Structures are given as C-alpha cells and as structure tokens.
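This part of the workshop introduces the protein records we will be handling. An example says more than a description, so a record of this kind follows:
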Amino acid sequence: MRFGKDFYSGLILSLFGVLMFFESQKIRRLRFDVLDNTFFPSVATILLVIFSVALVIHSLLSKEKPKPIVFEKPLRVILFLVSFLVYILLMEPVGFVLSSIIFVFVSCLIISWPIKIKTTVYSAIFAIATSFSVWYVFAKVLRLVLP
C-alpha cells in the first residue's frame, strides 16, 4: 500500500498537534477569567489532532489512488521553513510585533516570487497591518500575554 499526501500531512499535523498540546499546558496560568489562557491553545490543538486523525483515516479508507508528494518549487519551501525558524528564534529577543512583521513580509515575498516593487510595498503594508492587528486584538482587547 502506498501512502499519499493526505496520509503524511495528517500524520505530521497530528504529531504536531500532540506536541503543541503538551507545550500549551506549560503556559503560565494567570487566572483572570473563567477560561484561563491555556483554553484556546488547548482547544485548537485538540481540534487539530481530531481533524488530522480523520484525514489519516480517510486516506487509508479511500479507494482512490494516492497522489505522491511532489514539491514543484522546493527552494520556496526551504526558504519558508528557514524564515519560520528565524521567526521562532527572533520572537524572544525582538518581541512579537517586530518579529511578526519581518516573518509576514518575508513570507509574502517568498509566495509572490519574483519580487517586484509593487509587491514589496503591498507586502510591507500587509505585514505591518496584520501584525499590529493581531497584537492589538490579543494584547489590548483580550488582555493576553504575547511573547
């Protein structure tokens, strides 16, 4: 039996979900409200595991011939993974907002390759707007602690 994209992506996402669930339990509990700050990450990772396992089961029960994994643009995948690693490493020393702006900007440029001036400007505006919006909603409105 050959396994296809759905099987491997479901397997990887379910393992990632289990790992993230255990990491979310390490979040410092502030006890401001009935739902503490570990509620959302826990529910999100549980849902990720449930849907990922369902994807694995569906791929195993499917009668269709599985499609092999083919990376059409492997350089973009590698660049994105490297930028994500840099984002994780920059989060603590630089802070959430600045590291998120850099990550979203670089990700937009990787997705829209080849780089053009118009794309660069739009990517910068999008990166700044989304990073500040996420920060404002979570830090100011919901009063959650961000890294």
About this structure: The mean pLDDT is 81. Helices lie at 5-24, 39-61, 74-94, 96-111, 117-141. The two ends are 44 Å apart (CA to CA).
